[in-house]
Specification:
By secondary structure, the chain is mainly alpha-helical. The protein has a domain of 78 residues: Orthogonal Bundle (Cytochrome Bc1 Complex, Chain D, domain 2). It is elongated and about 70 Å long.
Length: 113
């Protein structure tokens, strides 16, 4: 039997490793899109939703997703007033609001264990 060439061995190894992480790879683009979307909130709400102490806006990290969705929809529909959030919220689809809410709910708040 002929020994396997290095190129074939590397291809086989790559295919084996990729089959282990197929779901992770499939989820990676969506996770990146969600993190990129959440980054737009960082200027006011802090990186990953962790507002600085004493910030005039609340941190979003660790808040329940349902609460975040309700607040964003209230901004979007005009039921809640603020300086810029109503206009920002109008730019998000319901699916994006749900993605953002899930992302921030999964983040640990500053000082959380």
């Amino acid at each position: 039997m002929k020994p396997m060439s290095l190129r074939r061995w590397m291809l086989l190894a790559a295919l084996s490793l990729s089959s282990l992480g197929v779901q992770a790879q499939a989820d990676a683009p969506q996770a990146l899109r969600t993190r990129s979307l959440a980054a737009t909130c960082a200027a006011c709400h802090g990186t990953a939703g962790r507002a600085l102490p004493g910030a005039p806006v609340p941190g979003l990290a660790g808040l329940p997703a349902a609460e975040l969705i309700a607040q964003m929809k209230a901004f979007k529909e005009g039921g809640r007033t603020a300086t810029v959030m109503p206009q920002i919220a109008k730019g998000y689809s319901d699916a994006q609001i749900e993605q953002l809410a899930a992302y921030f709910a999964a983040q640990k708040a500053e000082g959380a264990p």
